[in-house]
Design goal:
Elements: E1 12-16, H1 20-32, E2 36-41, H2 44-53, E3 58-61, E4 64-65, E5 68-69, H3 71-79, E6 84-88, E7 104-106, H4 111-121, H5 135-139
Parallel strand pairs: 1-2, 1-3, 3-6, 6-7
Antiparallel strand pairs: 4-5
Helix pairs in contact: 2-3
Length: 140
């Protein structure tokens, strides 16, 4: 159980990014961390449906999904009490005030920063296990 009483579902993290290369990098990173990626999803409609219907432990969201902001996804995740982070090239000022408490990681991400934010977001007391030798291969 997590500190908020929710059961652990196996580390399911929704990945929403319209850049397929970045989405693949994030998905591989999650797998290397022992987490299961849901998606990746590039279209807002599909992401909204997954956010509503899937058992999720967290989400990684690009702010711009094919020209549409991801904030409807944020509303659903917030209502379901599912934590999320932004992985984007957009500044924090573009995020509505109600979602500015979510972590923001700039693209391209640093593996150590992503690992730390994921561990905190998912409330993993021992952090994420990640083979050090693989970190550099994820970004190159």
């Amino acid at each position: 159980m997590r500190s908020d009483g929710r059961a652990w579902h196996g580390g399911r993290v929704l990945v929403c990014d319209d850049n397929l290369l970045m989405a693949d990098v994030v998905a591989e990173f999650l797998r290397e961390c022992g987490l299961k990626q849901m998606g990746p999803v590039a279209r807002l409609e599909s992401a909204v449906q997954m956010a509503r219907e899937r058992a999720l432990d967290g989400a990684i969201l690009d702010i711009n999904l094919n020209g549409r902001p991801c904030f409807p996804i944020c509303a659903i995740l917030s209502a379901r009490r599912i934590p999320f982070m932004f992985l984007t090239g957009y500044p924090q000022a573009t995020i509505p005030v109600e979602y500015r408490g979510a972590p923001l990681i700039a693209k391209p991400f640093e593996p150590a920063e992503m690992k730390e934010v994921l561990a905190h977001m998912l409330d993993l007391p021992e952090g994420l296990q990640f083979p050090e030798q693989r970190q550099s291969s994820l970004l190159h």
